[in-house]
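job 3f2a | input accepted
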Amino acid sequence: MSKRELRRAGVLARVKAGELGLKQAAEVTRISYRQAKRLWKRYQAGGAAALKPGNGGHRSHRARPVKERRKILKLVREKYSGDEHTRFGPTLAAEHLGREDQLQVHPETLRRWMLAEGLWSKVRKRKSHRQRRERRVHLGELVQLDGSFHDWYQKRGPRACLMNMVDDATSTVEAHLGEEETNWAAARVLRQWIEK
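job 3f2a | predicted structure (196 res):
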C-alpha cells in the first residue's frame, strides 16, 4: 500500500472507533465528502486492503506487450534517434513508424516510452532572446524616414500624412506635413534635412 492509502486507512479506523465523523475525515484526508463516503463503504466491506487500487500495482490489461514495446524502441533508437538537433520528436517518430514500419503507436505513448529510455528529453528548444540594436555613434550614419497617416488637424482640416525623418545617433527629427506619402514628399523632407 502507498503512504496515501495507509493514511486514509488510519483515518477511517478512527471513524470506525467513533473518534472522527466522516465529514472531518474528508477534511483531514483532503478529499470530498462524497469520495470519503465511497472509501468508507469500501473500508467497511474489506478493511484497509479494500482501499488499494483495483489493479493492485499490476500492469494494465490495455498495456502494449513488452516485446512490441522493445521492437518499437529499437527502431526509434536505430532510425529516428540522434543528438538534440537531428533526432525525431515523438509525434514525427510515431508518424514514420506507422507509415514506413507499419507499427501504430500513439505519440503520447511513444513520448512516455522515449522519456523512460532516455531517447527524448523535456528540454524545449528556445529561440535566442532578441537584443536591442546598438545606436549609431555619428550623426547621419543611419537616418530613418517614414510617413504616418493620421487625423493630425483633429477634424478641423483634411486627413494628412506626416513625413518624419529621425537620426539614429542623436534622435534629431525633421518632419513635414503633407497630403500624401509620395516620393516628392520624401524628397522634400530629405532636402530640408540636408539644408539644415
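job 3f2a | The chain has three domains: 3-51, 66-117, 143-195.
job 3f2a | closed
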